[in-house]
Structure formats: C-alpha cells, structure tokens
C-alpha cells in the first residue's frame, strides 16, 4: 500500500512540490474554522500557511470544524492535517498546467455533530482569537430575501433550548461566546468568508438576534467586544474528484486522501477590524480595506451572478461543467451582454472597479478547461444564492427604469431548472434547502396558469412564482419584473434555451410599460414576438 502524506513523509516529497516553510512542531492554534470544505482549504488555510512562513508567528494554527460530515476529518487526521492544494489552468500549448503545494496550517479537524461540546470548548479557549466561517449561504439559517434569522428553522429552535449540544453554526457561536464571557476570556473576531452581501454585518445581526433570545447581557458583551469584519473572497474551487486524488497522489509519490483543486486566481479583501490580532495575511496577497462591501457587491454581481446564469442555463442545455457551458457561443454571448448591459451599469459608483477588466477576467476564468467546475455545484442552493447575485441587481435596475430582460432570463432559467429535467430529457436532483416548498410553488404556478385564459397564463404563472417572498421579497409586487419574468419563462418553456438567448440578443428595443394592464399585454407580446427557431447545434450533442 502507498504511504500516506503526513509529517513523516513530507520531507520526501518531490522538489517541485512546495511545502510549509516553518516548523509545524511549534504551531499553536489561534483560529477555529467552521466549515472545513475545499473553499476554506483553497484560500484561508493557504493564506495562513504563507503568512506564518513569512512572519514566523506560529500562533495561528487552524482547528477545523466540519459541522456534520466526518469525511474531511477521516481523510486529514491520518495526514496530521496536511493536504495538497493544486492550482490548475491551461499552458500556452493548450495543455493543463498544475502546481502543487502542501499546506500545513490545519492542525486538527473536529466534527461538531459528534462532539459539539469540544467545539464549544475550543471557541471558549483562551488562545482562540479568530473564528472564521465558510458554511455556505444556507448555513446561516437566514431568510434569503431579508437576511433575518429563520425562527422556524428546526436547528435554530433546537439550539435555543440546547446550550450544550448546538447543531447550527449560529447556535454554536452564541453558546461558545457565552462560555467565553462566563470564563472572563478576551473577545475575538468572527470572520465570515461566505458569498453573502455584507457577510460580516449579516453574521453579526444573526448572532445578536439569537443571543438576544437568550440573554441581554450576553448580547451587549458580544456587541461591545467582538468584531465581524466584512470580507470578499474570490477563487473558484470545484469539488475534488477521484481522478484529482489519483493524479495528485501519483505526482506526490504518497497518498493524499483529500487534496483540493482550484484556479490560480485568488482575491481576498477583508476589513481590518480584528478584535485580537490576525495572521500577517498581507504576506499572502490579502488586501485590507476600511469597507469591503463595495468589493463584495462587485464580486457577487460580476462573478457570482453570471456564474448562476451560466450554471442554470448550462444545466438545461446538458452542459456538465462551467467550461462546457461557456463554450456554447450563444450562452457565452448572453453572459457577456448580461454583464455589459445590465450588471456593470449598476456598479458605476464603485471605486476602482475596473469593470471592463473584471468582465474579461470572468470570461477567461470560466474558460479554464483544466478546471472541472460542475454546473450543478454552482446551481445548487440557488434559492439562497440568487437574492444577492441577481435579484439585488434587478431592484437597482427597476429603480432606474432600466431594461432587465437578461436578468429576468437568468432568474427564469433558475425557475425552469427547478423542474429537474434538461432539454435532452435527462433528469437531475434539485439540491436546495428550499427544494420542497419550491416544488410546491411550481405546482401551484402550473395550476394557476391552467386556470387562466390562454393569453393570461404566462403572466399568472409568473405572478405566483415571483410571489414567493422568502426568495423574491417584494419583487413579486413589481409589475415590470413579473412581466419580464413571464416573458422569459414562456420563451424557455415554449421554445427552449437557445431560442430565449437569441431573442434577448436580437430585440434591443423591447421596453416594458409600467402599468400592470399594459404589462400583461407586453408579456404576451414578448413571448409571442419570439418566433420558434430552427434548433441550432449547441456543441452539446443536441
Ligand atoms: C460559485 C462560487 O458555487 C457557486 O455558486 O458561484 O462558489 C464561485 O466559484 C466562487 O464564489 C468564486 O469566488
């Protein structure tokens, strides 16, 4: 059997594999990280490794926490926390290029579900100075449209009653902080690295809302002493595949049970508001700013928004990866136009946005054929992803009376995607925390459409769908949005993705009137204006 990657085998790795440039034996824990997935291991753990190498301040070791699954713990424990980060892109000749680095900043991995008390103890441990999070959007137990804590979430309800065995990240944090305060320990920083608008402010308000149900004095202590910097992280990190494991193991000459594969591009911007110090992350290229929210908005709208559009439309066309989706000319053109005409204009006020460069870089990044980024990975959990990625942009555009048809097509694509079947008839599962209510919503919308007069059916369907407040908030009350959604959904349903893409590309003058009667007519007219096309080859076996 092949030897395992671990402290002992580290020194025997090939010379072209980078290794931790500090004495791991002297490392002490300073960070507790909730959500030890590939994303964290491809940015924060790497940046901490590089920061410790540069500063030789070895007090920032990471105690990683998986909230539920033992898989990462089981893979990394025999490896003494070591794993390989592979950065992949294409070389000049069009082949794949891969650089490998073994990251040493993770000291230990714990599984919260198995032993929540051990995690609470670590939060209330004197040397812990940062608690960071990559728990994905849904991990915050908030309502997507408003950002408010969902008091009907079973884990939140459970955690209000169970200070010793919390299940949710929010419950875990608040009960851990309560213990910390009881013990008279110093405050710390809670650092969200997830794709939420104002992720630090959002985390803070969720933590304070939960704490307030328990103890007013605790709420005051957290508010006065702990900090919640906003941050923006940008790096594409697909889920690791078996073939990645096999390839990397072969290059290392020892087995790495769970390496992480990412693109070379990394951009991490953080507000420099740390209650108890931080690693010298600037040594790893991290940018510190006074206010990160404009960077978050820029990234959510210009990277994640087009990502979601590409993923849902791509899935419908049968594209398995983001790269395959971006290779469909009509889809690539659509995403490009979406950024140019409807997203970028909402970001004009952002200083140094460099929107043109941002757009071009986005396209180059999705073109990275050396990275296998599944469309389904991006499309999953879209009920939580769409509000900051696309719906906030739509609100801004509506305020200015601006065209939203491409944004509406992206949203319609998601609703159409939720039917669970692509245009080739292949079925796929809907992975979304709101999958059950969304399935009921689709059924209700069908019933409403069937009950309506034929000319009103599309509009009635869109009214029901856009009326789903947990995702759309009050957008369902905006006639222009409902009409645009109705038109795009109808085109998708009747004529398919490629036709919908062509229709939005060729109809630049389409203006939807603001009064609701005219809107319904416009919706019908828009759908009807799109004459059924001859189906084109999409390069996807269609
Ligand atoms: C993607 C992101 O999975 C998704 O929803 O849009 O994870 C994206 O790859 C990263 O945010 C890029 O920084």
UniProtKB/TrEMBL annotation:
One of its GO terms (molecular function) is oxidoreductase activity. Signal peptide: none annotated. InterPro entries: 6-PGluconate_DH-like_C_sf, 6PGD_dom2, Mannitol_DH, Mannitol_DH/Oxidoreductase, Mannitol_DH_C, Mannitol_DH_N, NAD(P)-bd_dom_sf. Residues 30-282 form the Mannitol dehydrogenase N-terminal domain. Residues 293-492 form the Mannitol dehydrogenase C-terminal domain. It holds the Pfam family Mannitol_dh_C. Its EC number is 1.1.1.-. It comes from the Bacteria. Keywords: Oxidoreductase. This is Polyol:NADP oxidoreductase. It comes from Achromobacter ruhlandii.
